Amino acid sequence: MKSPAYELQKAILGRLSGAISCPVYDAVPTDAAFPYVTIGEDTAADWSSKTTSGQDVTTTIHVWSRYKGKAEAKRIGSEVLQQLTTGPLSMTGFSADPAQLDMEEYLVDADGITQHGVLRLRLYISEEG
Asked: What's the pTM?
């Protein structure tokens, strides 16, 4: 069995970059301006069968905004959700159905001024070949 984690991250970055109204980062530059999106944490569990190798994967996308109120974070979260749930992601060596929303939450970050959106998406990813 191979891990789809790297291919999934590449696919998410490729799908979101230029398709939503803010930058998308794996590592946020020190001079990054708000708003932006970061690719977050993954979890995976084996769901292989006798004939297929696959994983049940959750991946987390974070939305960061300094807009007063949650409107901007929620708008960007909706853009992310639309991009990642409307069609399958292209991954070398793997295939997956479109992502499904597992959880969505918007809160004020610990600094008291940053709006933080958390979107957790679920994908069932099969190894090809």
From this structure: 0.94
